[in-house]
Every structure is written in structure tokens, then in C-alpha cells.
Amino acid sequence: MRITADAKETTRRKILAAALDLFRTIGFDATTTRKIAKHADIATGTLFNYFPTKEAIVTCMVMEAQPVAAQINPDQHDTLEEALFAHAAYSMRVLKPYRRFLLPLLETTWSPLAKPAADDAGQTLRAEHLEMVERLARPFVDAQRFTPVASQMYWTLYLGVLAHWINDKSPKQEDTLALLDQSIAMFVGWLQGE
Amino acid sequence: MRITADAKETTRRKILAAALDLFRTIGFDATTTRKIAKHADIATGTLFNYFPTKEAIVTCMVMEAQPVAAQINPDQHDTLEEALFAHAAYSMRVLKPYRRFLLPLLETTWSPLAKPAADDAGQTLRAEHLEMVERLARPFVDAQRFTPVASQMYWTLYLGVLAHWINDKSPKQEDTLALLDQSIAMFVGWLQGE
DNA sequence: TCTATTATATGAGCATGATCACAATAGAGC
DNA sequence: GCTCTATTGTGATCATGCTCATATAATAGA
Questions:
Q1: Rounded to 5, what percent of chain A is helix, strand, coil?
Q2: Rounded distance, CA B109 to CA A96, Å?
Q3: Do B183 and A103 touch (CB under 8 A)?
Q4: What is the residue-wise DSSP string for A68-104?
Q5: Is the predicted pLDDT of residue A11 greater than 90, yes or no?
Q6: A65: how many CB neighbours lie within 10 A of its CB?
Q7: Which of A194, B20, B156, B191 has the fewest CB atoms lying closer than 10 Å?
């Protein structure tokens, strides 16, 4: 059983490595499941023993890149804007290697609003991110203010930023940072104001 | 030539009717292009002489439902919130018959942020909606304030509302209206404030 | 009215994500 | 070692969005 478990993990890693290589080289769409399988030296069917869908491979990559807990200290910042900006910027730094093929993840993390999927990995990412946002907001706003609607609106704005980021052509992605800045300002203004 | 043009239009309508019927009955995903073609009494290939993709059929339906110009009078409202709410609510009333299968349109109207597609019909819808928003904002905020970033943020929020709407299970979709209300409040607060 | 040209319809066929019945294999019990 | 069972690998196969060479019909020209 030990050996088998190791072998499984090896295959898993081989698939992830092969997929990442191809995604980087030829993009997500041009990377067929057959190519991934061939590149990883396994049969096409085997691929789906490890990942339920092609998108799940991307989701999985991103999940493994996320460190256990975001390294933002809630007490480190003077304003909520600052804290949220640091958190978002940090998340995006982690996501950066996958920027160019993040779209499928966005579509499946977005769509759950449409298809309330089961225990999807994308959902976990979302939940973790939002939990951190809430924790960061705690010192600055009354807990009652942070309703589910607030979470939802934050997430919508965050997705909007990511969607823009995916194709941001500006040299250092400064367009995206500006958008992020404005989005957070808008959100915080609303959350604290009124 | 006259007869042919008529025949083309007839076929077009037959396709749209067949598709709408199937989408309503069995949903977007379960409606295959073959089923649409069969239901419309044409060959599968013919379908694609009229619509480039399956999603385009939905987009087309929605476009035809949109009246030439949104019937909102800019001078009719006392506050920007009111005006924007009226506009969004009106748009959603128009979209209501298609609510359940709006997802593909959202994904292609959203994705263009990712894939800056050519002259897609979905883009037109977006542009028209945003133009109206800008016109409504004119009496209330300085024109300089309504930057492209502002448009983008409005659109993101609006899409968030629509995405929630698609699966809103509350009896009269009051959850969505609440979300819309908050989203607009947030946007207007930011646009006017600071 | 007959032919030539153009526009439209057709369905076999392709690419690809995913499935599934079956084959190979590894570990457990003896 | 040897069987037996459960787990994992395999590739033929399916479903479906879409394409394309060809067939068909419709109009223009004579």
C-alpha cells in the first residue's frame, strides 16, 4: 500500500507537471487532455482517474500554490484599505505564475453562483479568501456590517479585478493595480460609510 | 431574391423558436445543436449557416428582446441611485424570459475581458447598457469622473447581480433586488464621494 | 425555355472532453 | 510461492459543438 500510494502521488505530479508545461507553452485551449496524457506517459483514461475535468487540473495547481494561511497580519495595517490591498496583492502574487490560464478557474469559481456545485475545490479557495477578508475587516468595522451580501460584493469586485488582470497588457500590470485600488476604495467606503 | 430573403428569415425564426422552446423545456446544456436542428426541421449544418455558435443563439434572442433604446428618461429621477436602479430593473425585466439560460451570455460577455473578441453581439449589449448608464449619470456627476474604470466597475457589479439572479430562489427574486440596491448604493457613493 | 452561376442545404466527418468495460497489477491471506 | 480480491491503468467508444465537400435549388442571362 505504501508503494502504491507513492506511485499514485508520482503519477499525480507527472500529470500536473505535464499540464503546466503545456499550458505555459501552447495555452489552455490548445492543450488537449490527450496531449497532457501523452506528455505524462499515461493513457487518456488514466488522466480522469486523477482529475475529474480538465479545469480541475488548473484549480488543483492554484490550490497547491496557495500557502496554508495567507501571511497577512491583521494588526499590521492602519486602515482597512491598506489591509485589503495587501491581501489582494499577496493573493495575486501567488497566482501570478498561472495568470495566463486562470480563465477556466474564474469561470468555474464564478459559475457556482449559477450552478451551486458540490464540494468543488474552487469553492474552497473562495471561502478561504473571503474568510481572510472578514478577519481583516474585523478591527475596522462592526461585525454585523459584514453581511453575506458584503462578502458577495467583495468577491464580485475581486473577480472583476482578476478578469482584467488576465489580459492586462500594461507593462507592470499597473492598470490592474489601479483597478484593484479603486475597487477596494469603493468597497471600504461603502462598508464603513452610511 | 425576394422569396429567398423571406425564406431565410423564416428559417431564422424557426431556429430561434425551436431553440427557445428547448431551452425552456430541458435547459441550455441538455439542448444539443442536433436537437435544435431536428426541432426546426433543418439539418445540423444549416444551423451554423445562421448562427456561428450555440451561445450566439441565446445572445441573439436577448438582443432582439432589447427595445431600440431603453425607455428611461434621464430627467425623471431625483437621485442617481434612483435612475440607475430604474435602468437596471428595467433591463432585468426585459431579460426575465431568458433568466434561466442567461449563463452562456454572461460567460461570453464576461470573458471578453479575457478574450477581447471581435464585433460580438454581446459586446454591443454591454456598450449600449453602459452608454445609458453614463447618460443617466451626466446630470449628477462631473463628466470627468465617469472614467473607463468607473464603467468597468459598474459593469462588474451589474454582472454580479445578474449572476446571482440566474439562480435566485427567493419567491419574487427579492434577494437579487437587495443586492442590486446595495451594489448601486456602493457605486454611486464612490462615484459622487471622495 | 434552357443553361450557367450563385446561394443555400445537407449530413458525413472531425476534434475533444469524458466514460466505461475490461485488462493488468499489487498486496493480503495462506 | 500461490491464489484471490481490490485497486489502478487502458484505449476503444460516446456525445457534442462545429466544419466542409458536395448536392440541391434558385435566379440571371441568352
A1: 75, 0, 25
A2: 24
A3: no
A4: SS----GGG-SSHHHHHHHHHHHHHHHHGGGGGG-HH
A5: yes
A6: 12
A7: A194
Give the predicted TM-score (pTM) of the model: 0.91
Alpha-carbon span B53 to B59, nearest angstrom: 10
pLDDT for B117 equals 57
With bands split at pLDDT 50, 70 and 90, how would you rate the model's confidence at A68?
A: low
One digit per residue, the tens of pLDDT, for chain B of length 194 reads 456 767 888 999 999 999 999 999 999 999 999 999 999 999 999 999 999 999 999 999 998 887 755 567 777 889 999 999 999 999 999 999 999 999 888 888 776 554 555 567 777 888 889 999 999 999 999 999 999 999 999 999 999 999 999 989 999 999 999 999 999 999 999 999 86
Coil, strand or helix at B128: helix
d(CA A69, CA A115): 27
All residues of chain B having their beta carbon less than 8 Å from the beta carbon of residue A157 are: 153, 156-157, 160
Name the nt closest to A50 by C-alpha to C1'. D8
Residue A90: all three cell numbers together: 499577496
Mutate to test the interface with B, among A55, A102, A146, A149 (most CBs of B within 10 A): A149
CA angle at B53 for the pair B3 and B36, rounded to the nearest 5°: 65
Handedness of CA B90, B97, A112, B106 (dihedral sign): negative
Scan residues 165-184 of chain B and list those with Cβ within 7 Å of strand D: none
Interface contact flag, B167 A113, Cβ < 8 Å: yes
Phi-psi region of B170 (alpha: psi -120 to 50; beta: other; left: phi over 0): beta
The nucleotide minimizing the C1' distance to residue A43's CA is D10
Q: How many CB atoms lie within 10 A of CB B125?
A: 18
From chain A, pick out residues whose CB is under 8 angstroms from the CB of B110: 110, 163
